[in-house]
Amino acid sequence: MEFGTTEGESGDLEWMFESASSPTALVLCHPHPLYGGSMLDGVLETATRVAASRSISSIRFNFRGVGASTGAFDHGVGEVSDLANIVKEFEARFERLILSGYSFGANVVLSFAAQASDDRDLVLIAPPTQDALPDLKTKVDVIVGDNDPISSTKVLSDWTQAGTNRTLHVIDDADHFLGAYGSDVVDVLERVLVK
């Protein structure tokens, strides 16, 4: 495990990097900073373990104002810039980056992909559905629990069906907090994360 910082628009962004043998890396964005979200989140830890089992490197980082990352919460706006800086830091090291996020982090990934017209593959874990989801052309895998009050399976089903390269993976009985369904999350990620 390697620890470091990258310069962002509001100062240093703290990250953790776990290297593996393939030319692919998974960038992971954490849940809402104001509700305890950080790069140490359990769902992100699970994704990191699955990535390692697939020889995929992983990059976790703290958004501005979290942990040792400087700055303050910016309601998902500045956090898109934070992700952009992490992508810029690591993209030269790999042939392929997969962008992923859980909850708030998934929304940041969606906003980044829409704003940057980015064509990297996305893995979205429980993306909130209160706001309209962007129309993306890239490959997207969405993971959600069927009892999630924040991430509507109906909205996500409609959105995935409206795109040609989008797949919805529903975990039975799970709500927004997927910790108790770790093995189910692992099962889906093992199918989704390929070198």
Describe this entry's structure for a reader:
This protein has helices at residues 42-53, 78-90, 104-116, 153-161, 182-192; strands spanning 2-8, 11-18, 24-29, 57-61, 96-102, 122-125, 140-145, 166-171. Helices cover 30% and strands 25% of the residues. The protein is of the alpha/beta class and 195 residues long. The radius of gyration is 15 Å and the shape is globular. The protein starts with a strand and ends with a helix. Strand 5, helix 3 (104-116) and strand 6 (122-125) form a beta-alpha-beta unit. It has one domain: Alpha/Beta hydrolase fold, catalytic domain (Rossmann fold). The protein is built from 5 helices and 8 strands.
Short description:
The protein has 195 residues and is an alpha/beta fold. 30% of the residues lie in helices and 25% in strands.
CATH superfamily, by name, is: Alpha/Beta hydrolase fold, catalytic domain
Overall residue-averaged pLDDT value: 96
Taking Cα atoms only, what radius of gyration do you get, to the nearest Å? 15 Å
CATH class: Alpha Beta
- Annotated CATH architecture: 3-Layer(aba) Sandwich
How are the strands ordered across the major sheet? 1-2-4-3-5-6-7-8
Poorly predicted regions are none
Please state the overall shape, judged from the principal axes of the Cα atoms.
globular
N- and C-termini, Cα separation: 20 Å
DSSP helical segment count: 5
Global structural class? alpha/beta
Largest sheet: 8 strands, mixed
In which range does the helix fraction lie?
A: 25-40%
Estimate the strand proportion.
25-35%
**Within the CATH hierarchy, at the fold level, what is the topology?**
Rossmann fold
Total number of domains: 1
